[in-house]
Specification:
This protein has one domain: Zn peptidases (Aminopeptidase, 3-Layer(aba) Sandwich), CATH 3.40.630. Helix content is about 45%, strand content about 10%. It has 16 helices and eight strands. The protein has an eight-stranded mixed sheet with strand order 1-2-4-3-5-8-6-7, sandwiched between helices. Helix 4 links the parallel strand 3 and strand 4. Helix 14 crosses helix 15. The longest helix is centred in the first third of the chain and has 27 residues. It is elongated. Bound molecules: zinc ion.
């Protein structure tokens, strides 16, 4: 009897070890790749690796458009900073040839580091699509680098550790939002010690996460972590205690354009969420049936994630909603473009994504174990929002060209 028990015990221990080793190997070998795509120089040439280059290329193209299209304006707005006096949001406005009442807006870099892809898409749009538009083109407003600090220093957040896509609001009420689920998870997503990806804690982080998922379910966790929080300035997804300077600036600046249109369509450019190399049209749920229908007409033939399916989450203080509140009289359609980088739609992908996000913030808040760790943590974070793979870059531009072309064609036609 004792012998039989011993055998069962050995067997169970062996099984548990096998599961741990198996999951360890499959978690740490998780490395999604872009499906076979044709890489073209034309597409990859839009990418530049520094904020300064992206910005000067944007301004160059804007100045060129100014020469070609009457009454085009190019403006640069300084974003106040304690660390860097050369941070700007750059804006190019092209009025319509005829009075169509429609304004198309495209913004990049709300999440600073995501501006590398966003800027590339904007510049492709400026050099290829705008010159081909006819007299029925809408007014066009391009906003480059909403969070220039994060863009330049390769962070998602602003220099105040604020996630601009949780901070954008015309009302101050947002900053009183309480996120109880987040407070419960605080220690799990904000470890308060020096960052090291090699320690035991980080190696088995996914196990802790999986236990949490089993306890509360993935959608609940995702919602608690990602919706934004307003209590912990050093924590992830902090939405601030007041609007960031650029939100105040936009609230004052934009009405001069927004108020003269009765139909506004915004595309806000992001990276990081979803299947690697794929453009996801991913929005907060839309209640207004008319707006939903117009959005479907504009993106006819494309799949839209409405933010109400099981694996989605909704956010507070998002930039798209804020922009809609600038002129509440206008019909307003918005669509965040998300270019996937890490297959975050599957569990291992989303855990890797969360782990990289946590450790990047941990390093900023509490320092790094050594310089080698600092380098590793930072480069793995950059890779998550701005992948170096030319196949990724090429397909981002390829898909943007097609979707923007189709969407604008449909937008021009809607009544
Ligand atoms: Zn983003």
């Amino acid at each position: 009897m004792k012998k039989a028990l011993k055998i069962i015990l050995y067997f169970l221990t062996g099984l548990i070890l096998l599961v741990i080793i198996g999951s360890y190997i499959s978690y740490w070998s998780f490395s999604p790749e872009v499906a076979d795509v044709v890489i073209t120089n034309q597409n990859t040439s839009y990418f530049a690796d520094s904020y300064d280059e992206c910005r000067s290329d944007f301004v160059l193209l804007a100045n060129q458009l100014q020469k070609e299209i009457d009454n085009t304006t190019v403006e640069s707005m300084s974003v106040p900073s304690k660390l860097d006096q050369d941070l700007t949001i750059d804006i190019c406005y092209i009025p319509p040839a005829l009075d169509t009442g429609k304004l198309f807006v495209m913004s990049s870099g709300v999440h600073g580091i995501e501006g590398y892809a966003g800027s590339a898409v904007q510049r492709m749009f400026m050099s290829e699509l705008i010159p081909d538009m006819g007299d029925d083109r809408p007014g066009i407003l391009l906003i480059h680098g909403m969070n220039p600090y994060g863009f330049k220093y390769k962070r998602r957040v602003t220099e105040n550790n604020v996630d601009l896509n949780r901070n954008s609001s015309v009302s101050l009420e947002l900053y009183n939002t309480e996120n109880r689920g987040y407070a419960d998870l605080y220690n799990f997503i904000n470890p308060s010690k020096v960052a090291s990806s090699r320690n035991l804690f980080n190696r088995f982080y996914y196990v802790v996460a999986i236990v949490k998922i089993i306890k509360s379910s993935m959608p609940v966790l995702r919602q608690a972590v990602l919706q934004g929080q307003y209590q912990f300035p050093e924590g992830l997804y902090f939405g601030g205690t007041q609007p960031e300077p650029q939100i105040v600036m936009m609230k004052e600046y934009l009405p001069k354009y927004f108020d003269i249109y009765d139909n506004i369509f915004l595309v806000d450019l992001h990276t990081g969420y979803g299947e690697i190399g794929k453009l996801h049209l991913f929005t907060n749920p839309v209640k207004d049936e008319n707006i939903k229908e117009l959005t479907e007409t504009i993106f006819d033939g494309y799949y839209i994630d409405w933010g109400d399916s099981g694996d989605f989450y909704t956010i507070n203080g998002d930039f798209c909603s804020f922009m809609g509140d600038i002129n509440p009289e206008a019909t307003y359609i918005s669509m965040p473009f998300e270019f996937g980088t890490l297959n975050s739609q599957v569990t291992f992908g989303s855990l890797h994504s969360l782990q990289k996000t946590i450790i990047e913030n941990q390093g900023i808040q509490y320092g790094y174990k050594n310089t080698k760790q600092e380098k590793m943590i930072k480069s793995s974070f950059i890779e998550m929002y701005y992948p170096s793979d030319p196949a990724w870059k090429s397909t981002v531009i390829e898909q943007s060209r097609k979707v923007l072309n189709d969407a604008l064609e449909n937008y021009i036609k809607i009544k």
